[in-house]
Amino acid sequence: xxxxxxxxxxxxxxxxxxEERGFASALARRLAGRELxxxxxxxxxxxxxxxxxxxxxxxxxxxKSFEIRLSKEEIDAGLGPTDFVKxxxxxxxxxxxxxxxxCVNKKGKFFIDPPGGYAALSHVWSQGLGADIECRGLHRSLxxxxxxxxxxxxxxxxxxxxLAIPGSGRHLTEVEEKLKSQLINTMADIYRGAxxxxxxxxxxxxxLSEEAPEVAAIMCCGKWITRIWTYxxxxxxxxxxxxxxxxxxxxxxxxxKLSRQFQGEGKRxxxxxxxxxxxxxxxxxxxxxxxxxxxxxxxxxxxxxxRGREATIRLDYARGLYPLLGLEWEPGLDLQAAMQKIFESRxxxxxxxxxxxxxxxxxxxxxxxxxxxGVRGFATISPGEWKPRGVERGWFTTKPLSMExxxxxxxxxxxxxxLESESANTDSNHSSNPGPKCWMYVSSATANExxxxxxxxxxxxxEGTAYILxxxxxxxxxxxxxxxxxxxxxxVKSESTDxxxxxxxxxxxxxxxxxxxxxxxxxxxxLLLHENPTLPxxxx
Length: 540
Prior knowledge:
Layout: H1 11-21, H2 25-33, H3 41-49, H4 55-59, H5 72-77, E1 84-85, H6 89-98, E2 102-104, E3 110-112, E4 119-122, E5 138-139, H7 140-149, E6 158-159, H8 161-164, H9 174-184, H10 187-193, E7 196-199, H11 212-221, H12 228-236, E8 240-243, E9 248-250, H13 251-263, H14 271-274, H15 279-289, H16 299-305, H17 316-319, H18 322-325, H19 335-345, H20 347-350, E10 385-386, E11 390-398, E12 400-405, E13 414-419, E14 437-441, H21 444-449, H22 451-463, E15 466-470, E16 483-493, E17 500-512, E18 522-529
Parallel strand pairs: 4-6, 4-7, 7-8, 17-18
Antiparallel strand pairs: 1-5, 2-3, 8-9, 10-11, 11-15, 11-18, 12-13, 13-14, 14-17, 15-16, 16-17
């Protein structure tokens, strides 16, 4: 990185540059607003000049790590790719029954638990090394290219999920699903026991550099860092190695190097600290290396790290985390039941995630996010007490008296709430004497996937049983009229005389001190019920 540069927010220039290079607007804006926010245009240009891709390559969402090379015999036959490498069914069954590592070598031969050890591959299936849709395995030329690339590391045996675990574009039989579940339950030991976990990202593989800031920046631009499965693979790794066009970079060593560079930039709170181009990259790597697996790993860390990660199969938003969390996958689990099992295995930690904004609420427990992917904002709170019927905790409590949808078509998920004041009369004539106001934002995912949650809360506002619960008060001490932003839960009180409520959704509350002057904002203890009446499948 350039030394002695006066850093500033370079969002517009960086996002424009990335879009011109071929990145989708949403990704360009995310990178420019987070990881690359304080890079100079010269720094980002130098980095991308070492990336051997065209604009069309970057636009290609299916950019491959390696391309199939047909043999002379295949070309002469004119039948396309036919020379595939695949373990026998007996080898897969044997590896599952023995909980062994079914590995492949450069000649396409297989061995369970090779005595000299093995490396494991972490990759994105859509980048060319996933299971063949016709269940033929991997083309031999791909195996050869992988081992050619890894030759300097002297790797003899490699474990690959796309060869060792049944799975492709077709539905699996009941027997295959059972085997797949058994093998998924061995993945923690497989990745933890590998001498190296090799990271292939199609973009990083085209980078002619091993410099820490450049490799980290291109990793953030690639697809590997956006997947659920790759997160748990690298968190389980003892020695993760990133492969670039020019060589190999230890993920841990890269993180240490970035940390040293960042520590030399300035003290916490200083201008140099706040505008560091290194700090955002270090935070990304920290989320991958924040040690611990199984019972040691924090559910808060997992939720934070997975907020921008995706899975092709929706079930994998939960299934892809089971090896990391030390949970046993069972055939037949659906997403709701799988997430419920995650939350119930980490009850205290789960209660800290109540204010994660973005995903709709789960079926059970109904106060938790349905998945960790898609979190748009969050406030990690102190834990509540998990009880048989719900979670008990204190909240700053405000009662909305009316709810009006925003008329701007661009902001259909924004609502204006009139709030109960300390002195206002709360009878039906309150509209003649308007109370404090705030804006309530609901995520698109919540509005689109669970519209009943909105109508449920809106009906409760009319009936006088709706409340907004925050972890912090709606009045700020930061000046006469600063903008106040809070994450909140919109709840509907049950018929119980106690403070028991169902959580309808999470929301983002925006107001000013001027707008909320006089608001009634009490600290009350609530029992947030486990069931979600807006979704099927919740406990009775």
